[in-house]
Design a protein that fits this description.
With 440 residues, the chain is α+β, with helices and mostly antiparallel strands. The strands form 5 sheets. Strands 1-11-12-13-16-10-9-4 form an 8-stranded mixed β-sheet. A 3-stranded antiparallel β-sheet has the order 5-7-6. A 3-stranded mixed β-sheet has the order 8-14-15, with no helix packed on it.
Length: 440
Amino acid sequence: MLDIKYIIDNVDEVKNSIAQRNVNANLDALLDVYQALSKVRKNLEDNRAEANKVAKEIPKANQAEKQDLIKSGSALKKKSAELEEALNGLQLTYDELMLTIPNKLPEDTPAGFDDSKNIVLRVEGDPTSFDFKPKDHLQLGTDLDLIDFESGAKVSGAKFYYLKNEAVLLEMAIKHFALSVARQHGYTLLQTPDVARSGVLESIGFSPRGNESNTYVIEGHDLCLIGTAEITVGGMHANEILNESDLPLKYVADSHCFRTEAGAAGQAGKGLYRVHQFSKIEMFQFTKPELSSDALEEILSIEEEIYKGLEIPYQVVRICAGDLGAPAYMKYDIEAWMPGKGDTGGYGEITSASNCTDFQARRLKTRYKDKNTKKNTFVHTLNGTATAISRTLIAILENHQNKDGSITVPEVLRALVGQDKISAIASSPDFAQRTPGKKK
């Protein structure tokens, strides 16, 4: 969240951010509630002070005065209870309104309400060309017995899936590679819980409930399945005052991710591109404010290092105002070339990198002791996808396919996968034995 003092002093700027992001937020209502909240809080403090004064006078008073003071004290106590109730109601409304106010925006943020207005900053590698008609990852996954949506739907529902055979080895190899690259850049390795308290989700900027929620809520418990390890890593240092000498804190985390909305049917979300569950390696930093701009560039450079290593063509995109999430001050995406996207191939989002400034830290109450000012100062938080496995599998299968139907394993993954190619086996004698229930 933003500092209310900043909001009051920069009303026009905050309104501009709300308008550019095209979000539903009522700043005027927030300011009215804040004014009312401040007034009631002051009245309550004055009332309590008067009650304390009366209580101290009672022992010194004579019998007649005591009765009047006790009566006055009772009235003050009743008034305090009424003010507390009013204060709690206003505080709840204030908190709800504050959750709707998005982060600030840099002046150079591209204008636009959706991803069509995102700006391509650079393209790395030419789109993969073939001297044959390429298959999409769904066909490749079927032919090579790597992906099973049918069993996933039977057991768990639509948009769940099983990875099989070499796809399992590929997932493990991709994870290992991404973790290793991040570790070389000073990131501490984590494997996080797959659940978090709803308050942590709200602090990070994810709504655990409501019509726009994308979260699986565990009924009967104050827990939700996480949609990203940004939630669990960000929550690690909630309500803490960090040592300035320890900053920046850099983490890279392995987790499963769960999202209730898997996207609309059709080409845009087909196959593994939008699913209810996937694995992801997430980078996260806690930094001093003056370091966060450089930290964002570092996270982006690590993401690029990973996808260059995987030999996947991609483009780097600056995200426009309307496509930013509420916590993000500035955001980059990497979009990988996917030959099976649409009729002729296309780019699809594969990573993001966001600078959330102190927006999340204020909700989390994560600070550090500034040695110069001697004050507790909110850190800046940043997050970035080292690799989202399901979409990375799409890019590898589709870009590295061969005319004979096989897949060439990227060189950086071969030692972990244990082979250079995933061979076409649909017509081989042992295919039926490898895949129970399927005929040769």
